[in-house]
């Protein structure tokens, strides 16, 4: 029997009913993973946000958790947990970043379509994003089911994708999104990684297009040819009919499968309002 839920979008996404991730037991995780295999995205409302410890403890049930991401120069650290990725617009002292701050520019690049940690050799699997403070307007998270996108691709394009791999680079998406150029030390901290453009789920055997703004090039294609193919794929994938826009409330937890979806943050008045979001991300393998 599946966990009680309602659909969020005609083709994917589920909102769990009467579920508290603080109380979820290991024997229920299999049901949740089955639901994730079907819907790729699950929203779990809570009246009170999970504590950082509760957030981490739940995430560990989904698989090996990312720890101690290499620090970017000048970013500081607001939350004293290696497993928590701070996705807020707040600096280490708790104040909103000033417009033009290098750190804010890096965060604004998350408004590009992407999938978490594709720039690592060991890819991100499940991301768990928890809402502590949300702005009164804007700041939705938009998601796309890349399995449905791949299914709907014309056969002529599918044939082109066979055996093609892409180079994913964190710094490519940061600069593409208006962020500053990285230092040599920063470049070395996050070297690029190569992954196939089409992935197959190990359990369901469903195929998904593995696309992200992190992609710098397609292996074996000339630069212009690769860019043209990426533009074509992105234009197809980001059609309005494929997009689920999630409107946040305080206490919400959103879980998504990075190997089956693409997502982006949407703008809000980040010089006026606080948006305090905290993320954990699981990886393919423990590192």
General description of the model:
With 287 residues, this protein is an alpha+beta fold. The protein is globular and about 50 Å long. The relative contact order is 0.24. A hairpin with a 6-residue loop joins β9 and β10. The chain contains eight helices and 15 strands. The model has no long low-confidence stretch (mean pLDDT 94). The strands form four sheets. The protein has a seven-stranded mixed beta sheet with strand order 1-2-3-13-5-15-4, with helices on one face. The two termini are 34 Å apart.
Distance between the termini: 34 Å
What percent of residues adopt helix (DSSP H or I)? Answer: 25-40%
Strand content: 15-25%
- Helix-strand string: EEHEHEHEEHHEHHEEEEHEEEE
Name the shape in a single word. globular
Weakly predicted, low-confidence segments:
none
Strand order of the largest sheet: 1-2-3-13-5-15-4
Total number of β-strand segments? 15
How would you sum up the major sheet? 7 strands, mixed
Protein structure class: alpha+beta
| SS summary, helix count | 8
Indicate the radius of gyration in whole angstroms. 18 Å
Q: Report mean pLDDT, rounded to a whole number.
A: 94
